[in-house]
Amino acid sequence: MKILCFNGPNLNLLGQRDTSIYGNISLEEIEDLLRKRASELKVDFAFFQSNSEGSLIDTLQNEAPSADAIIINPGALTHYGLSLSDALRDARLPVIEVHLSNIYSREEWRAKSVISPVALGQISGLGWQGYLYAFEHLTEHLRKGA
Q1: pTM, whole model, 2 decimals?
Q2: Is 133 a catalytic residue?
Q3: Which end of the chain, C or N, has fewer beta carbons within 10 A?
Q4: Helix, strand or coil for residue 122?
Q5: Alpha-carbon span 44 to 127, nearest angstrom
Q6: CB-based contact 72:99 (threshold 8 Å)
Q7: By C-alpha distance, which of 146, 144, 142, 145 is closest to 44?
């Protein structure tokens, strides 16, 4: 079993950017936590971040054929990443969309996601733990053969 984790623009600055919204944990720390959990569950895991939609899509298209599920925090691409949404749909894998902050309690434009229509589910506003919840859910989902 292999789960991919994709992260969009500006997430490389976690721990430095507005910590009152995004928290103090860095993306590297989130990756380390997920790798540890993947090891415990004996799940293969790949982690990728880019500030470029094209790089995310290229990596997704290269990695998806050998994967079973996807966790994605698309960052601002949530709201306008139509080609990313298409690539996720074309991957034909279960997807969980993750957001550190509650996108529904912020600016009105943040509540619109072009990714959610292709996602199995969305976790929003639970901080870095949302990644772990997504990982746990996808692992269980795949093991049950759902």
Answers
A1: 0.94
A2: no
A3: C
A4: strand
A5: 23
A6: no
A7: 142
What CATH topology corresponds to 2-143? Rossmann fold (3.40.50)
Pairing assessment for the beta strands 95-99 and 2-7 based on DSSP bridges:
unpaired
Render pLDDT for 91-115 as a digit per residue (tens, 0 to 9): 999 999 999 988 887 778 777 899 9
Q: What three-state secondary structure class fits 34?
A: helix
Q: Please give the DSSP secondary-structure letter assigned to residue 108.
A: G
d(CA 110, CA 49): 20
- Please write the tens of the pLDDT for every residue from 28-68: 999 999 999 999 999 999 999 999 999 999 999 999 999 99
Contacts of 129 (CB under 8 A, 6+ apart): none
Query: CA-CA distance, 25 to 128, in Å (whole number)?
Result: 7
Query: Of residues 22, 80, 131, 133, which has the active-site annotation?
Result: 22
Phi, psi dihedrals of residue 121, rounded to the nearest 5°: -165, 175
Burial 33-59 (b: 16+ CB within 10 A, else e): bbeebbeeeebebebebbbebeebbeb
Active-site annotation holder among 79, 80, 99, 137 = 99
